[in-house]
Design goal:
Blueprint (H helix, E strand, L loop, with lengths): L9 H13 L9 E6 L11 E5 L2 E5 L4 E2 L9 E3 L3 H5 L4 E5 L5 H4 L2 H5 L8 E3 L1 H13 L6 E3 L5 E4 L2 E8 L6 E8 L2 E6 L16 H10 L3 E5 L14 H11 L5 E4 L5 H13 L3 E5 L1 H13 L23 E5 L9 H6 L13 E4 L8 H13 L3 E3 L15 H11 L3 E5 L3 H13 L14 E6 L4 E6 L5 E3 L1
Parallel strand pairs: 3-6, 6-7, 7-8, 12-13, 13-19, 14-16, 14-17, 15-16, 17-18
Antiparallel strand pairs: 1-2, 1-20, 2-3, 4-5, 5-22, 9-10, 10-11, 11-12, 20-21
Helix pairs in contact: 5-9, 6-12, 7-8
């Protein structure tokens, strides 16, 4: 069952009626592509973009946001779907760029409100995670599988797919051809030249689209404050090797559940040190099971054992892949720390490795969890003291500059970061020779309009009423 929403008050509902009448008017010549962020620009999560042309809509992603742990009565933030629900007959499709929660987890809340099937497209791995997410809410939807060879013809939107490396398998950028120009939708990415999966980003293909002519580049900007390239995932295995080598007790690794390559690297090191691995936590168990079934994760023979058999091994013979890297309430790691897990206890000599970035808003809760682990006697490795136990899935300045150079856009729009990161992206682009007026830094509720004459401008602002899930 879906969890309950906070409902807006009467005044808010009236305000929404006003913005629906005023904002989404038809342009006089009707030759305008509108780009709307229903999660809001300057917001790292709640990813939901809508492209609108002559009343026809294309949805890109449908994610959730995460509430700061100080506000315990709510857990998730869901974008405002009202305009989409009012115009559901005009939605051509929903396309997912990749399978992270802030890009897919809003779909169940949206599908419970629509009255007709809407075509859904996702990569093989993203589709598997979406199907699992829908099953949690007793929902089902047909998901069409796409890859880098796919081409979609959706009315005024012609879509091609570009494989890109990120911290989750099967991530794609979208090339959206419209009657008023070509838009490159560059969601979360980095250029990893030695990826764990062995498949590099399709840089040649990106360059071909750049040669064709990109009117507007939407680009991930989350790590625009960091110089150079983001490091390759390959280096993590060496870091795990260092961490496990001096561990006298049980060895724990926690990361984002969907980070399959990270689990693979942890398992490789665990196997090399002749330990047995136990997968703990519902989210990790699901991801590992799906990844093994679909061939994204290869288990070293005889290494993974069920939790019920862990009691037959000494602490120094065990390792745990455990959920709870974001200190989620009720996660396996939090239960262990609180002493509520019946089979796993933290003892002096145990080591816990947080191989993850902090989702904005979770820092206080994660630090409290680390405090508790330390108090119980565990050695804890985390990003503030060991900067090589995690590498980001987001590109730093050199990655971002490379995408700009490959696509050669006329206009740029940073997405997926806070406003300070959007600003740093703009400064980077200016150092590359772009004029300030070519770089769009919209306010949270701003819309973007791409016109037939190739000009891009700010459109009217909208009123966003996200819903808080209890």
């Amino acid at each position: 069952m879906l969890r309950s929403f906070y409902q807006p008050g009467k005044k808010e509902k009236n305000n929404k009626m006003i913005f629906r009448r005023k904002i989404f008017h038809q342009d006089k010549n009707n030759e305008v592509l509108k780009i709307i962020s229903f999660g809001g620009f300057g917001n790292v999560t709640q990813n939901l973009f809508v492209y609108e042309y002559q009343g026809q809509l294309l949805m890109i992603d449908c994610g959730v946001g995460f509430v700061e742990k100080l506000h315990r009565k709510t857990e998730l933030v869901v974008p405002d779907f009202n305009y989409l629900l009012q115009n559901q007959d005009k939605i051509k499709a929903i396309i997912f760029t990749h399978g992270h929660e802030d890009h897919i987890a809003g779909l169940p809340f949206f599908l419970t409100k629509v009255k007709k099937p809407i075509p859904i497209y996702a990569s093989r791995w993203s589709a598997a995670l979406i199907e699992e997410k829908l099953e949690e809410y007793h929902l089902h939807a047909k998901i069409n599988i796409v890859d880098s060879q796919s081409h979609l013809d959706l009315g005024p939107f012609k879509i091609d797919f570009v494989f890109i490396t990120h911290s989750i398998p099967d991530s794609y950028h979208l090339v959206i051809r419209t009657p008023v120009g070509l838009v490159y939708h560059g969601s979360d990415f980095k250029f990893d030249w030695t990826p764990v999966t062995g498949k590099q980003s399709e840089v040649g293909k990106i360059a071909q689209f750049g040669h064709e002519g990109v009117t507007l580049l939407l680009s991930d900007c989350l790590r625009s404050e960091n110089a150079g390239y983001t490091l390759s995932e390959q280096m993590i295995e060496e870091s795990f090797e260092r961490e496990i080598r001096d561990c006298r007790g049980k060895f724990f690794v926690t990361t984002m559940s969907s980070n399959v390559s990270r689990w693979q690297q942890a398992l490789n090191v665990i196997a090399a040190h002749r330990r047995r691995a136990v997968v703990v936590g519902r989210s990790v168990e699901k991801v590992v099971s799906i990844a093994v079934r679909l061939g994204y994760l290869k288990l070293p023979p005889g290494v993974v054992i069920p939790l019920k058999k862990a009691g037959g091994f000494l602490p120094q013979q065990l390792a745990f892949l455990i959920s709870g890297s974001q200190a989620q309430s009720g996660s396996a790691l939090e239960k262990v720390v609180r002493g509520e897990h019946r089979q796993i206890k933290i003892k002096p000599g145990d080591k816990v490795v947080f191989s993850t970035d902090y989702i904005p808003g979770n820092e206080i809760a994660i630090h409290h969890l680390i405090d508790r682990l330390s108090y119980l006697g565990a050695d804890v490795s985390y990003s503030e003291i060991s900067d090589d136990i995690h590498v980001s899935g987001h590109g730093a300045q050199a990655d971002l500059a490379l995408l700009i150079s490959l696509t050669r856009p006329k206009w740029l729009l940073p997405i997926g970061g806070a406003f300070r990161q959007m600003k740093q992206y703009a400064l980077l682009a200016q150092r590359m020779g772009f004029e300030e007026k070519q770089i769009l830094l919209p306010e949270k509720s701003q819309t973007i309009e791409l016109r037939a004459d190739g000009q891009v401008r700010f459109g009217p602002k909208i009123t966003l009423h996200p819903q808080f899930v209890v």
